[in-house]
């Protein structure tokens, strides 16, 4: 579990590619202070498992499902990535609940500077519009953000100066792909409501007798 508060910007050193998977080597510093084998680290919002590490880098495997479902396949040596360690139980919780299980990818449509803010508009997959709520939470490349505006299949977020400086988002170019994870609470509520629609129990006299309500 993560918070969406990016701790560090890392740099991709090497990618050992196979056909539909790869091992990624990432340069980092802060997140390696207490790292252990098997730890979870979010890389651009994708939860990966540390399989090897040194004082200045770590390695993680990217499986075929992650290869197809996220934008990690588009990384190359030199790419900068958002990094966050798994949430500590004894720390402050400054973002929102982020699982690191990306729902899909979106693309940057526009960016506009308004005084000290940077407005960024993204196209999101049509099937995920139901999870979008203005002023609601969303994680883009692992960064916890608030939806500033939503219209159709587009969302706009506003980056404060700190987020512009401490994450990779401000350096995205028009057309770039990003990983998107929608609010966990919203997804659970939607699933529960949809499940209730599917389970329609018709109350009949026979059912009342069968369940002991009528003798």
UniProtKB/TrEMBL annotation:
One of its GO terms (biological process) is riboflavin biosynthetic process. The keyword Transcription does not apply. It catalyses: 2 6,7-dimethyl-8-(1-D-ribityl)lumazine + H(+) = 5-amino-6-(D-ribitylamino)uracil + riboflavin. One of its GO terms (molecular function) is riboflavin synthase activity. Lumazine-binding repeats lie at residues 1-96, 97-193. Residues 1-96, 97-193 form the Lumazine-binding domain. Keywords: Repeat, Riboflavin biosynthesis, Transferase. Gene3D superfamilies: 2.40.30.20. It holds the Pfam family Lum_binding. Pathway: Cofactor biosynthesis; riboflavin biosynthesis; riboflavin from 2-hydroxy-3-oxobutyl phosphate and 5-amino-6-(D-ribitylamino)uracil: step 2/2. Its EC number is 2.5.1.9. It is an enzyme of class 2 (transferase). Catalyzes the dismutation of two molecules of 6,7-dimethyl-8-ribityllumazine, resulting in the formation of riboflavin and 5-amino-6-(D-ribitylamino)uracil. This is Riboflavin synthase.
């Amino acid at each position: 579990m993560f918070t969406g508060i990016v701790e560090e910007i890392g740099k991709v050193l090497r990618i050992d590619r196979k056909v539909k998977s790869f091992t990624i080597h990432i340069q980092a510093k802060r997140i390696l202070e207490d790292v252990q084998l098997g730890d979870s680290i979010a890389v651009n919002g994708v939860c990966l498992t540390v399989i090897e590490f040194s004082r200045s880098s770590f390695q993680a495997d990217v499986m075929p499902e992650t290869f197809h479902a996220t934008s990690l396949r588009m990384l190359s040596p030199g790419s900068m990535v958002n990094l966050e360690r798994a949430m500590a139980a004894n720390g402050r919780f400054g973002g929102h609940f982020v699982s690191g299980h990306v729902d899909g990818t979106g693309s940057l449509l526009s960016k506009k500077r308004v005084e000290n803010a940077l407005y960024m508009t993204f196209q999101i997959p049509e099937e995920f519009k139901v999870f979008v709520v203005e002023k609601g939470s969303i994680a883009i490349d692992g960064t916890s953000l608030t939806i500033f505006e939503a219209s159709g299949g587009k969302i706009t977020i506003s980056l404060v100066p700190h987020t512009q400086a401490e994450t990779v988002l401000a350096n995205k170019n028009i057309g770039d792909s990003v990983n998107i994870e929608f609010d966990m609470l919203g997804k659970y509520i939607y699933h529960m409501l949809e499940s209730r629609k599917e389970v329609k129990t018709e109350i009949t006299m026979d059912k009342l007798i069968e369940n002991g309500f009528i003798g």
